[in-house]
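User: For my dataset I need records formatted as: sequence, then structure tokens, nothing else. Please produce one.
Assistant:
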Amino acid sequence: MKTITLFTGLFVLSVLSYGQNLFTGNRTWNVVKCINMGGCTTRSFKTGADTLIGQQNHKTLYVTDDTTFAIWNLYVAVREENEKVYLYNFYLQKEELLYDFGLNTGDTFSTTVNIPEYGNCPVNMPLISIDTVMFENGTRERRFTFENEQWISGVGSLNGLVYTGINQCVVDISHELSCLHDGGDIVYQSPDFDECIANSTGYGETEEATFSVYPNPFYNETKFTFDSGIKGDITLEIINETGQIVAGPVPVQSNEISLGKNLIPGIYFYRLVQNGKVLSTGKLIKAKIAVIF
């Protein structure tokens, strides 16, 4: 991973205020995920439409592992209130605290981060210090420093938008925000990366074929759409959390395969297999209720 400083300052902000303002404009966060002794991939998040959940207004958040940004899947919903940021998990039908920008030095940030990848992770992070960082345009934003993490108001965690406290939940996998865009404008560029995207093979990409999975989470069934470059005898399997194959193996003989109608709500995994070799894996979530926007 190259370490190149792209700007004379740490980064540039287009939103100037002492407040989180995370979801203004048309924002995209690119997060590089690296596995120890393995490769790196990029997961991107972007804000979507407003939605009402209960009596609270939320902003939808979409995710993609496709570096061409062709397919985006509904991920979670988020909202901001009184310097706090909340995340709503559609599968669990539960809201959790994601950030608290009202903390003071010495306070402890506590939450259970229920994002789809790393649910039910208790996080307790004492806040070591609060200072400000200077941007190229001469303005400042607050920086919150914990033992293994930093937040920037207007940007979020430098681990990535939804990955607060991730170092307490996951080992052998690292996450780092590579850049944040608002439309075509750069809001944040990490000095640790010379590009926003890590192009090594990741979920949804193999040497033989590329594919998308949509919707995910899904309510009735989900659709796997393969490109025309698929080659060889490849099968698709759906596996539950105990490792049992609950759907498939299904031969990939067409560009579209729909699965999941007979599954009960829960967390599953898919995998593409060719001649006994696993080409790609990923997580699927079947929701208990349909989400309509």
